[in-house]
Amino acid sequence: MTDIEIAQKVTGAHIREVAKKIDIQEADLEYYGNEKAKLPLSLINDEQVCKSKLILVTAITPTPAGEGKTTTSIGLNDGLNHIGKKSVVVLREPSLGPVFGIKGGAAGGGWSQVIPMVDINLHFTGDFHAIAMANNLLAALIDNNIQSKTKSLGIDPRTVLWKRCMDMNDRALRNIITALGGKAGGIPRETGFNITAASEIMAILCLCNNLENLQEMCANIYVGDTFEGTAVYAKELKAAGAMAVLLKDAIKPNLVQTLEGNPAIIHGGPFANIAQGTNSIIATKMGMSLGEYVVTEAGFAADLGAEKFLNIKCRKAKLSPKAVVIVATIRALKYHGGKPLNSLSEEDLAALKNGMPNLERHIESIQSFGLPVVVSVNAFTSDTEAEKELIYDHCKKLGVPVALSYGWADGGKGCSELAEKVVAAAETCTANFKPTYHLEDEPLLKIEKICRTIYGAKNIVLSAVAKRQLKRFEALGYGKLPICMAKTQKSISDNDTLLGRPENFDIHIREFEIATGAGFLIPIAGNMLRMPGLPSAPSSENIHMDSEGTISGLF
Would you tell me which of 105, 171, 367, 474 could form a disulfide with 533, CB atoms 3.0–4.6 Å apart? Predict the structure, then answer.
């Protein structure tokens, strides 16, 4: 069966029954039908957060063969509950762009899914729409102020950085001209659209602590400069209050369930190659307030999602994982070892061995934080016994525990071995993680530490534009912000053609962006897109609905 057929086959429990498993009272549930509910921020208990064990799931460098990070996260959560632990999985919300684009749905797979799968992959509880509206309100206020004759801040339209957003892949909107049609249409200027997951509002929602903090962070958004060169912020447009009002419900995490009826919290969804790539601080702390264990994931591989999860999110939230799971597949490792995509089902021990350095690099990166690592091999039916033995032996030589994960086929039972090894690893962790850099470090030093420690890069090269922008941002007082690297997810380097474990490469910083509301500095390596396009054969072509409303093709 396809993922959606499996999800439709299972009748989920009423959400109040799921809530009971983690001691949530029915009065605290804000129902969105029978299978979804929003949770109040009052459920966060800082004392319990300190007692809960946070488990981060990351992965090797993504390949077209797939790794199954979300499937493993859900399966591990069900596995922990299967062995008697009180565990909650906390995940990001899927973006509609990838759902209808190249990736399809993002609610896990096989028998390790969260439900209601269709709702989660589509409009869910409206969080993404609220984020887009808050983003676009600020855009409208900027253009309104530029047009104003009485309340103008003197914003230079050529310097405005803030773009509108929508939750769909649409390359035609990357670069546009607004305000055509004469004086009544406003002042024409060049701008564009970002996808909602790439909006700074999404990053802010996922890094704020409460409504008051959310409003404060929105007020601090840098939008552009005046004609005199003075920085202009959202607070000067008196935008933050209305923006926060639009987000008053979106800030509340969403409670759903796995196929096995275990609690799952889903909230927020920033991209990992241009933002922090993880669910909200609020959702993670809520999960930790309610569960003995919390399983969460960070986007893409350990060089992107995990690095930002630790250096940005955990630093601000004052959280520290007890163990990190690195997801790999034998198929993906063979791809990194030079095996063609169309022959990955064939046994090839040489290709597998040649691909292992990619896994090794990510293990070393996580170990640089001083955290225990467990390797999870997401099993496929094409994996041979010889290939399994090779990866087990290799991890043993590295001194890293490894487990085969059968969550896709067998749910929690198929992840019980992984769960046992994660518990054992978590119990050995007695110290907090060690950040890659200090906030007091100069920006360039922070970048160098990330690139050398996490990527294994040789040198960092800044373009003339990047040097000028960095000088400007430092002059504005933002030199002490954490770093949010923007680079390709397809390679540990900034060159997406370099698979495996590249050596002796340089990282080239083309330009800088800044997210003063979210609170990080963004060095951009390569051409990063905040508005993806659709592929030639988008996933939307396979999605259909019959006369009774049953949906198919939403993988």
Answer: 171
- Total structural domains within the chain: 3
Point out the catalytic residue in the list 100, 111, 193, 300: 300
Residues, the chain = 555
**Could you tell me the pLDDT band of residue 552, with boundaries at 50, 70 and 90?**
confident
On whether residue 363 sits in a domain, the answer given is yes
pTM over 0.90: yes
Q: Active-site residue 227, yes or no?
A: no
Asked whether residue 361 is domain-assigned, the answer is yes
> Do residues 119 and 264 share a domain?
yes
What's the confidence (pLDDT) of residue 404?
A: 96
- Same domain flag for 277 and 421: yes
For residue 505, indicate whether it is catalytic: no
Selected catalytic residue, list 380, 433, 512, 520: 380
pLDDT for 104: 66
In a domain, 496, yes or no: yes
CA-based torsion, 443, 446, 448, 450: positive or negative: negative
CB atoms within 10 A of CB 42: 8
Catalytic residue among 272, 332, 419, 486: 272
CA distance 17 to 176: 49
Among residues 404, 428, 452, which one ends one of the domains? 428
pLDDT tens-digit map of 441-486:
999 999 999 999 999 999 999 999 999 999 999 999 999 999 999 9
Q: Which of 36, 38, 92, 331 is catalytic?
A: 92
Q: Is 71 considered catalytic here?
A: yes
Q: Which domain holds residue 290?
A: 3-125+250-428
Token output for 110: 């096989």
Active site residue 103: yes
Mean pLDDT of the chain: 95
Query: Catalytic site residue 467?
Result: no
Q: Is 69 a catalytic residue?
A: yes
Which amino acid, one-letter code, is at 205? L
Q: Are residues 277 and 384 in the same domain?
A: yes
Rounded Cα gap, residues 98 and 174, in angstroms: 16
For the chain, how long is the longest CA-to-CA vector?
Answer: 75
Is 113 within a domain? yes
**322 and 221 in a common domain:** no
Same domain for 120 and 20, yes or no, is yes
363 and 287 belong to one structural domain = yes
Residue 272 falls in the annotated catalytic set: yes
Across 250-272, average pLDDT: 96
- Active-site residue flag, 332: no
- CB-side neighbour CA atoms (13 Å) of 370: 10
